[in-house]
Design goal:
- Chain A contains 17 helices and two strands.
- Chain A has helices at about 15-25, 35-40, 55-60, 60-65, 65-85, 95-105, 110-135, 145-165, 170-185, 190-200, 205-240, 255-260, 305, 310-335, 360-365, 370-390, 405-430; strands at about 50-55, 305-310.
- Chain A has a two-stranded antiparallel sheet.
- The longest helix of chain A has about 30 residues, at about 205-240.
- Chain A is globular, with a radius of gyration of 25 Å.
- Chain A starts with 15 loop residues before the first helix and ends in a 12-residue tail after the last helix.
- The longest helix of chain B is centred in the N-terminal third of the chain and has 30 residues, at about 15-45.
- Chain B is α+β, with helices and mostly antiparallel strands.
- Chain B has two domains: about 1-45; about 55-160, Rieske [2Fe-2S] iron-sulphur domain (Rieske Iron-sulfur Protein), CATH 2.102.10.10.
- Classes of the chains: A mainly alpha, B alpha+beta.
- At the A-B interface, helix 9 of A face loops of B.
């Protein structure tokens, strides 16, 4: 037997439960470093984690757990969403009644709907904050450029998921928010009108649009999001874990390594050829169990003082983020009900007709110019976001908050971020009937 | 490579790299072409050939249902029927800005969503609306019903004499 921790019991039928347990869990609870490595390595759910993780990546004040939080919110959304599907009918004549049923007759119906709605809002906010964290700490720099690009797409898919979900209750808010939202799409040059027609399946928001948004919301977009998240996570590992400052890296401070050269490193179990040498002579190439991995990685020589075993350090941290995320959503859902307005009345738009809060910045821009506010400016902003890691490639100021070297980039980004947040605040609190300026006080 | 190609092609031996390369290219094109065709087919599939919502050409009633001076907004049809003397016209009530339904106001039309205002003939007087409200063709059906055709936009101020 190659793995000495797996001991097959021979005690006969009395050992049946133990044999079953051991057939499922390959390792007993670890009490040695070897056991800790083996547990992370052989468990399906744990093996997407590294065996050891850098101390810097575990610092709560570095990541604030935002990426994990977004993932856990998506998990809550998937579970509550599937449960809500048992009672929901995507029909203009039934959808709203089903909302009332969730409120009145379905056990925990209102609670599940609250959880789904508040998690959706939270996910939009958390994904945005996660993007801010990654930008402000320069974590998009080589070799992580493409993972940033995937992240931008994840943000867009999150928004689109939220948008498609917004129509499903078929109340006034839903109908008019989608009417305004899809009209914005109609302003896109050349393909705008066609895109709008494809999205709505008709010239106005009606039964076809409801069905299409439902399919997008429960099937197409969640699959796309799951696929992108999988690649996002896989690349984190392949790019050498979370970004960290060069000075945290022993023996890898030279720029060729930070540029993402084909440096290969094994983790704990790696047989790093030449690792016995001094720190200065650390190998640029070595071969480990995990094969060829790009980017600055944990080096055999620096493991002792810079890294910790994932079991239990990383898993405890993840569990903490999970518990906090679920607890907050549960408590909020207990005390605040998801809004439900009057049923759709195509003859009487509410005044003002407002989109979901995260689109109110867009709606505010749209009130000045439909094309520039709805397509031009947001399109340019997304393009700029996608290009950021290819424009700013200098490997300085990575992995720390507000480094001096990144003053210009961070100032520019914060200006854009604050401007967008300000537009959302104006659209939410300072706009009344006919979109005229009102004071909330 | 060319030399090798002519030689082996003549011999027809297993070392026929030229043929192999051509077959690779052809299968590549085939695969790529099939992918493109399936992508286009999917687009054709999701673009509805018939819509199930409101028809764009509909009867609105007899001319005498609309007294002179009436500005009657048929919100479900998203059209406002205007009668002046013996002339009947149809103005769209879908805001040209972002598709909300404009309401009939004293000065013309007003949009509740982003505050666009239009005059009696649908021309923009204020707000973010980029262009005037559309006018639609009104015809008289053989049974005496007025028929509005929303697929047929006409110049502003085009009326049907009844």
């Amino acid at each position: 037997m190659s793995n000495p921790t797996i001991v097959r019991s021979q005690k006969g039928w009395l050992a049946f439960p133990e044999n079953v347990w051991r057939s499922i869990f390959r390792n007993p609870l670890p009490n040695s470093d070897y056991g800790r490595s083996s547990t992370s390595f052989t468990n399906f759910f744990l093996h997407i984690h590294p065996v050891k993780v850098h101390r810097h990546s575990l610092k709560a004040t570095y990541t604030w757990g935002l990426g994990l939080m977004a993932t856990f919110l998506f998990l809550i959304l998937t579970v509550t969403g599937i449960l809500l599907m048992f009672y929901y009918v995507p029909s203009t004549t039934q959808a709203y009644d089903r909302m009332l049923d969730l409120r009145g007759t379905v056990a925990f119906g209102i609670f599940l709907r609250n959880m789904h709605r508040w998690s959706a809002h939270a996910m939009v906010a958390v994904v945005f904050l996660h993007m801010c964290r990654v930008f402000l700490t320069g974590a998009y720099k080589p070799p992580r450029e493409f993972n940033w690009v995937i992240g931008v797409f994840l943000f867009l898919v999150t928004l689109f998921l939220s948008f498609t979900g917004y129509l499903l209750p078929w109340d006034q808010l839903a109908f008019w928010a989608i009417t305004v939202g899809t009209s914005i799409a109609g302003y896109a040059p050349l393909v705008g009108k066609e895109m709008r027609f494809l999205l709505l399946g008709d010239s106005t928001v009606g039964q076809e649009a409801l069905l299409r948004f439902y399919v997008l919301h429960v099937a197409v977009l969640p699959v796309v999001l799951t696929g992108l998240v999988t690649i996002h996570f896989w690349r984190i590992r392949k790019d050498g874990g979370l970004a960290r400052p060069a000075e945290e890296e022993e023996g890898t401070t030279d720029s060729s390594t930070a540029q993402g050269g084909p440096v290969v490193a094994g983790m704990t179990m790696a047989v790093a050829a030449g690792a016995a040498g001094s720190a200065a002579a650390l190998p640029k190439r070595s071969f480990g169990i995990q094969g060829l991995v790009r980017g600055p990685l944990v080096k055999a020589g620096s493991i002792e003082n810079r890294t910790l075993f994932s079991w239990p350090n990383l898993f405890q941290a993840e569990l903490l983020v999970f518990v906090i995320s679920v607890a907050v959503i549960l408590v909020v859902s207990l005390f605040f009900n998801a809004p439900l307005e009057e049923p759709v009345n195509v003859m009487h738009p509410p005044n003002p007709a407002k989109a979901p809060w995260y689109f109110l910045g867009l709606q505010e821009q749209v009130s000045y110019s439909a094309f520039w506010g709805g397509i031009g400016v947001p399109g340019l902003e997304v393009l700029l976001l996608l290009l950021v890691p290819y424009i700013d490639r200098k490997p300085v100021g990575v992995g720390q908050w507000f480094p001096h070297e990144r003053m210009l980039a961070n100032t520019l980004f914060l200006t854009f971020a604050i401007l967008n947040v300000a537009l959302v605040v104006i659209g939410t609190f300072f706009r009344g009937a006919n979109w005229e300026f009102v004071s909330p006080w | 490579m060319t030399k090798n190609l002519t030689k082996t092609a003549a011999e027809g031996g297993p070392e026929d790299l030229g043929r192999r390369r051509m077959l690779t290219w052809l299968s590549g094109f085939g695969l790529f072409g099939s992918l493109m065709i399936s992508a286009v087919s999917n687009f054709i599939f999701i673009k509805p050939r018939a819509t199930y919502g409101q028809p764009n050409k509909f009867a609105i009633g007899k001319p005498e249902d609309f007294p002179s001076g009436a500005r009657m907004s048929l919100d479900v049809r998203r059209v406002c029927i205007v009668r002046e003397g013996n002339k009947v016209g149809a103005i769209s009530t879908t805001c040209t800005h972002l598709g909300c339904i404009v309401s009939v106001a004293e000065t013309g039309f007003a949009c509740p969503c982003h505050g666009s205002h239009y005059d009696q003939d649908g021309y923009v007087t204020s707000g973010p609306a980029p262009k005037a409200l559309a006018w639609y063709q009104v015809t008289l059906a053989p049974n005496g019903d007025l028929v509005v055709d929303k697929d047929n936009e006409v110049e502003a101020g085009t009326y049907l004499k009844v």
